[in-house]
Amino acid sequence: GAVVSQHPSRVICKSGTSVKIECRSLDFQATTMFWYRQFPKQSLMLMATSNEGSKATYEQGVEKDKFLINHASLTLSTLTVTSAHPEDSSFYICSARPRTNEETQYFGPGTRLLVL
Amino acid sequence: AQRVTQPEKLLSVFKGAPVELKCNYSYSGSPELFWYVQYSRQRLQLLLRHISRESIKGFTADLNKGETSFHLKKPFAQEEDSAMYYCAVQPGGTSYGKLTFGQGTILTVHP
Fold first, then answer.
1. Burial label, A97 (beta-carbon count in 10 A; 0-12, 13-18, 19+)
2. Would you call B100 an interface residue with chain A, using a CB distance cutoff of 8 Å?
3. Among residues B98, B36, B10, which one has the least CA distance to residue A36?
4. By the CB < 8 Å criterion, does A58 face chain B?
């Protein structure tokens, strides 16, 4: 089955540092990957859509300079939280849409970020 | 803007009882509706989508465009159904693939 991985699974960093989160489709190519954010006991909120070889499109209210997205290949998208602050602490989840079946998307296990 | 409402944060039933998880949406056009499930310590996974009109693990969901609802139902709940359930809406066109999720309902099925 289609598997999406995220690395790291959890990360703790100091305020002001940058953190990179990777999202990989392990056994399929993904033309599109999505990045979501989930606050405790709340729903998933779409942050941005990442398309291979082009700039990401961000949802309203999401700072593109704060959350840098790179989709350099058909199996990898990265989200970099720049100059992280405690309010950026959250659960970040990616999903990937297969090139051969664009009607579905598979979710990663999520990355828990804690900024001290 | 599209909106998905799941009015119940928590829902508890006993094993063998019928269960209905409510979902209402607000969206112009013809969106596609989904139910996703997240079991304890597992990732989010698709349970069913309205266009396929299939039954997965005994669950069904009927899209009612008049009431803009997409309630998830199962006639006889099982303990292994205990999980977090999210209703989601996907628009078409250039926004294809972008999901708007409801707040989620935690279903607990007691033995």
1. buried
2. yes
3. B98
4. no
DSSP 8-class letter at A27 = S
At A88 the three-state DSSP class reads: helix
Judged by a CB distance cut-off of 8 A, whether residue A49 touches chain B is yes
Distance, in Å, from the CA atom of B89 to the CA atom of A23, rounded to the nearest integer, reads 23
Three-class SS of residue A87?
A: helix
The token pair that represents A28 in the structure block: 């399929």
Q: What is the per-residue DSSP string for A97-110?
A: EETT-TT--EE---
Residue B14: what pLDDT?
Answer: 97
| Residues from chain B contacting residue A49 (CB–CB below 8 Å) | 97-98
Structure confidence by residue, pLDDT tens digits, B10-51: 999 999 999 999 999 998 777 889 999 999 989 999 999 887
Query: Taking the CA atoms of chain A, what radius of gyration do you get in angstroms?
Result: 13
Going from the C-alpha of A92 to that of each of A7, A47, B25, B65, the distances in angstroms are 11, 9, 24, 32
Are B98 and A46 an interchain contact pair (Cβ–Cβ within 8 Å)? yes
Q: What share of chain A is helix, strand, coil (3-state, %, to 5)?
A: 5, 55, 45
Residue A59 DSSP one-character state: P
What distance in Å separates residue B49's CA from the closest CA in chain A? 10
